[in-house]
Structure prediction request, 198 residues.
Amino acid sequence: MSRVAVDRRLDRQADLADWLRGVRIVRAVSDADGHAVVVKDTKTHATRRLALDLSTVEVFRRRRARAEEVAAASGGALVADAYVWSQAADGSIPYRPDRVTGAFIAARHSLKLDHLTFHTLRHFAATTLAGSGVGIRTIAGRLGHANPNVTLRTYAHFLEVAGRDAAAHLGGIVAALAPASGEEPETGTSADSAADAG
Prediction:
């Protein structure tokens, strides 16, 4: 199992504008045979930046404050390049992906949503963004797809449905502009009508 590691210094002095520019994804964390945590290159071997919303920024800020409390309680401090989520008091070791999975499973079970998986949430995010009009290139970037064609192929069925919805929406607009039933639409200008009458 692999999870993305966020390369972000959670510095108290970091201002909100800096946080809203997002985080850089530069490496992945995985369980090696369920025993050791391995930090490695991302699947696409590329760095990407994810923009963050205010709620997520607040989660990161609270996480940083909690990490500092844990480090202080252990008589130490966070290392300079501490992981956002860590199993070490000083933040030097990333949180085990299997623990993240376990916490997710417990949370979904408590909500009676046992059918949800991380992959389901990924699909939900992609289709929600596409349905909201976010461009495929942006969606591909958030999902970590180096090539937007991968995103197009993966979500082709949804995009067909969205295309039909778009056609129906445009049809509704055109229908609202059409003359009332039984009336002939005007085909010329009023000048043309005056010339025909004369």
Notes: DSSP finds eight helices and four strands in the chain. The chain has a mean pLDDT of 79. Strands lie at 2-7, 23-32, 36-40, 48-50.
